Amino acid sequence: MPFLIAAAAAIAGILNTVQSGANASLNKALDQPILAALVVTAANVAVYFAAAPFIGIGWPGSQRIADVPWWAWLGGAMGATYVLATIFIAERLGAAVFTGITVTAAIVTSVLLDHFGWVGFAQHTADPWRILGCALMIGGLVLVCLR
User: Fold this and answer.
1) Domain segments of the chain: what residues?
2) Closest CA to 92 of 17, 20, 12
3) What gap in Å lies between CA 128 and CA 115, rounded to an integer?
4) How many helices (H) and strands (E) does the chain have?
5) Which of 16, 8, 12 is nearest to 95 (CA)?
6) Percent share of the chain, pLDDT over 70
7) pTM of the full predicted structure?
8) Contacts (Cβ under 8 Å, ≥6 apart) of 30
């Protein structure tokens, strides 16, 4: 089972990179960035509704809604910011540089979130191996960015 979970995560990473190019191409073809972002959002909603019969959907009680931390409501805005970045920035930087920057930033941020147990993640100490991994990611990004 862990292999399937890791494979699903790898597929999500691949799709994330391809999504950047697709979003940038959509914007280029439409020449309307907000319309492109809205099309992306509509596609997201369609996928969520298509998945709902398999995963389930329901409305939580008011107490559950009240118990949601304030920052948890901002995930959608963060996702929208990423979509806008793919629309405006990915094509200019190229897939390797854009993905390198976003993945390296994500890895470094992830190690910090894990280390401090922030935003709902279980605490995992930023040991020397994790710090070295971050440094290697940054070094790899530098190599990808060199021309």
Assistant:
1) 1-146
2) 20
3) 12
4) 7, 0
5) 16
6) 99
7) 0.84
8) 36, 39
